[in-house]
Specification:
By secondary structure, the protein is mainly α. Helix content is 88%, strand content 0%.
Length: 114
């Protein structure tokens, strides 16, 4: 009887240790998956930020060139004074910025869990 109890105890101990080991491996796998998913989200966000910053710089240079071209066009072709041209273009840019700001405020946040 004692040998049977010892065998059952040894088997029970082996199964418990194997079960604990499997749970640890599964937990480690789950943590690794969560960390990998978080790193993926961070990488995608950084990439989008860099791309948006490059586009913003190019767009800013383009807007500056357009404003300068409009100033020269209005002063030379239409015969307006420089202060009037700058006032008109300044008002147009401020109104455009306000419209763009309202669009940004209405945009929803990005869904991280797809």
């Amino acid at each position: 009887m004692a040998k049977k109890d010892e065998k059952e105890g040894a088997l029970k101990g082996f199964l418990e240790s194997a079960l604990v080991e499997k749970i640890k491996e599964g937990g480690k796998f789950l943590v690794d998956e969560v960390v990998h998913h978080a790193q993926d989200i961070v990488y995608q966000t950084e990439r989008k930020l860099i791309d948006n910053m490059i586009v913003a710089v190019v767009l800013l240079v383009g807007i500056i060139m357009l404003v300068l071209a409009a100033v020269f066009f209005m002063t030379d072709f239409l015969g307006l004074q420089r202060y009037a041209v700058l006032l008109i273009l300044g008002l147009v840019l401020v109104i455009g910025a306000l419209i763009f700001k309202r669009k940004i405020e209405k945009t929803k946040y990005y869904n991280l869990w797809r």
